Amino acid sequence: MNRREFLSLTAGLATASAATPARPNVLMIGVDDMNDWVGYLGGYPGVRTPNIDRLAALGVPFTNAHCAAPVCNPSRTALFTGKRPSTTGVYDNEQYWRPALPGTLTLPEYFRKNGYYAAGAGKVLHHVAGFNPPDQWDEFQMQVFDDPWYRRTEWYPWVKKEPMPAGYPYNGIKNFQGEFDWGVLPKTEAEYGDMRAVDWAGKFLKQDHKKPFFACVGLWHPHIPMFAPKEYFDMYPKDKVQLPIVPEDDLADVPAQGKVFAAARRDEFETIVKDGKWRDMVQAYLACITFADAMVGHILDFLESSKYAKNTIVVFWSDNGWHLGEKRHVHKSTLWQRSTHVPLIIKDVHPRQAGRVRVQPVSLVDLYPTLTELCGLPKNTANDGQSLKPLLDNRLASHPPVVTTYWPDNHSVRDERWRYTRYKDGSEELFDEVAEKNEFHNLAGNPKYAAEKQRLAKFMPARSAAPVPERSTIDFDYKTYTYKKKP
Ligand SMILES: [Ca+2]
């Protein structure tokens, strides 16, 4: 052996021993109902999200990411099981996923099975009792709400109900329903519920962990009720707040099923507008986005000053978007861009063309196979999604179009240019997202685009699983965390 061969062999040995370090940790940060009004996505010029943008510069920001379902429970169920709603039959908030999917391993369960410590706090899976079984986790801190006077004790048995405070409701709308409130609570920023999840993250990241960890911190903001300290409202003076553009006839070219989705909770939108509070609502949403961003900042600071800074994969996501009057709708639960488009950032332990946006369509259902691959765990063959590692490695890699589903056989496909939606009755929408972000012109009836529709239709699931039982048919016992079919 000559000297050169010897050096190359010893270099190889050194690489081999350095190549088997402990597996990377995972820190997920989830927010609720945050649409693309985030700095790096440009959905609302002037929105302040310095911390999310900081992560976007350090990691890989996705600009065309979509939820698998446009509402909390089915979106989170898809993210954490790696299965689409059309596979599981979990399509909406009123369906328990656990009794319907025996043997399905959620992300924390799968990581635990593969030697990880799984821990979390706040709203991770859906926030109502029965949706976040504690046996998935080695440790879990329950969500703390800002409105314990409103929260229903049968839905949130761990919450101690408090008497209604003075000044409630804070948005000043008479006889308006309790959840859809906004304003400044008579307490300090440190006393807000999301800060308890932030505190948990701070403590967790200071501890010595013997195993690699899979940790998830779930923030409630900017979900309704939209409460935040006054300084966040002051960042968006009301006279400068921009309202979405909503043409009078915008629903005219939308099929009947689309109109049904848009009409859900229409009365709330109409009450807000009639009361002259539309601008106030938009201001509150902006304030709560920036509040959520501040929470994200605290968590990133804790990580960066911890010994886990360099060997932890960070994933930031929102479970679905949010309408602020577009298509005459507030809330989510539609198959339009406002509901499906979400922020998504992955910061791997390798730099991977950091800060450079990925414009390819991706889905939150892709996170499960992405994380198992990045952590070197065996692939879970039950996953529907596709690993995003090729996109992390190379910003020019391709990714197939992604699907958002809301109830059986209503699917919306996104690629880099188009949104093609087909509702259960066969009616269609086609929007050119490059030509117009607002989805004002449904092109589905134009024969010029027949081939485009045919191409995109191939990505829709061939069949939709029957919806799993509604929770009204199940007796759930919180103490034993068991489910029994009602007689
Ligand atoms: Ca949500």
Radius of gyration: 23 Å
Count of distinct strands: 18
Coarse structural class: alpha/beta
**Bound compounds, please?**
calcium ion
Q: Could you say what the CATH architecture is?
A: 3-Layer(aba) Sandwich
In short:
The protein is an alpha/beta fold.
Would you kindly provide a written description of the structure presented here, covering whatever features stand out?
- By secondary structure, the chain is α/β, with parallel strands linked by helices.
- The protein has one domain (about 20-245, about 255-405): Alkaline Phosphatase, subunit A, CATH 3.40.720.
- Helix content is about 25%, strand content about 15%.
- It has 14 helices and 18 strands.
- The chain has helices at about 5-20, 50-60, 70-80, 85-90, 105-115, 195-205, 230-235, 255-265, 265-275, 280-305, 335-340, 365-375, 390-395, 450-455; strands spanning about 25-30, 60-65, 115-120, 140, 180-185, 215-220, 225, 310-320, 325, 330, 340-345, 360-365, 400-405, 410-415, 420, 430, 475, 480-485.
- The protein has an eight-stranded mixed beta sheet with strand order 4-3-6-1-8-11-2-12, with helices on both faces.
- Strand 15 and strand 16 (about 430) form a beta hairpin.
- Helix 2 (about 50-60) crosses helix 10 (about 280-305).
- It is globular and about 60 Å long.
- Residues about 5-20 have low confidence and may be disordered.
- Bound molecules: calcium ion.
- Calcium ion binds near residues 319 and 320.
